[in-house]
Write a structure and sequence with these properties.
Distance between the termini: 37 Å
Number of strands: 7
Strand content: 15-25%
Helix content: 25-40%
Order of helices and strands: EEHHEEHEEEH
Shape: elongated
Number of helices: 4
Number of domains: 2
Radius of gyration: 24 Å
Structural class: alpha+beta
Largest sheet: 5 strands, mixed
């Protein structure tokens, strides 16, 4: 398993296949007990059938999770982002840290376009996924001003999109405080 920053563990596809194998064996045992319940006319035989059926559904689900790879895109130079709006359709908004350079914003938008792609998204309008990056400025105490820094449009039809359109809003990037150079 892969450790995360919070000390938790992310299960891999191999973990799901192993779990599916063990739950599958338990499903067969439950099915055999249900068969014995019918053979000996136990009063709980129908409950045993329900338990065996539930175990079969659980086995199929774990097996399915074992087949689908958990793919995360990693682009050098990308900064961490937070998804702040995603309705599962064709629009997503992410928040990035402030300040950010144009290069880091471009890399972050590319990484978000790879990570937020899903073939199960609702395909509205033009079949494009629009991901916007924003940050929050505080021009004076007690005032917050959200501004969009850039966006990326990518296809909803395939995972690999060579024709992503990245647009940076340079007038908004100019409003950000300048990053401090490490020296």
């Amino acid at each position: 398993m892969l450790p995360t920053t919070l000390g938790q563990f992310i299960p891999t596809t191999a973990n799901f296949l192993t779990a599916a194998e063990w739950v599958g064996i338990l499903t067969l045992v439950c099915g055999a007990i249900a068969a014995l319940g019918f053979l000996f006319k136990w009063g709980i035989r129908f409950r045993l059938v329900g338990a065996a059926g539930f175990m079969a559904v659980l086995t199929v689900g774990l097996f399915g999770l074992g087949l689908v790879p958990f793919v995360r895109t990693s682009i050098p130079g990308a900064v961490p982002y937070t998804t702040i709006y995603d309705a599962g359709a064709n629009e997503v908004v992410i928040a990035v840290r402030n300040p950010i350079t144009e290069e880091a914003l471009t890399a972050t938008l590319q990484q978000a376009a790879g990570n937020l792609f899903s073939p199960g998204r609702l395909n509205r309008d033009d079949g494009q996924l629009l991901i916007r990056a924003r940050t929050v400025l505080h021009p004076e105490p007690g005032v917050s001003q959200p501004i969009y820094l850039g966006q990326v449009k990518r296809s909803l039809s395939g995972r690999d999109d060579e024709n992503m359109e990245i647009t940076l809003f340079r007038e908004n990037l100019a409003k950000l405080p300048k990053p401090v150079e490490a020296g």
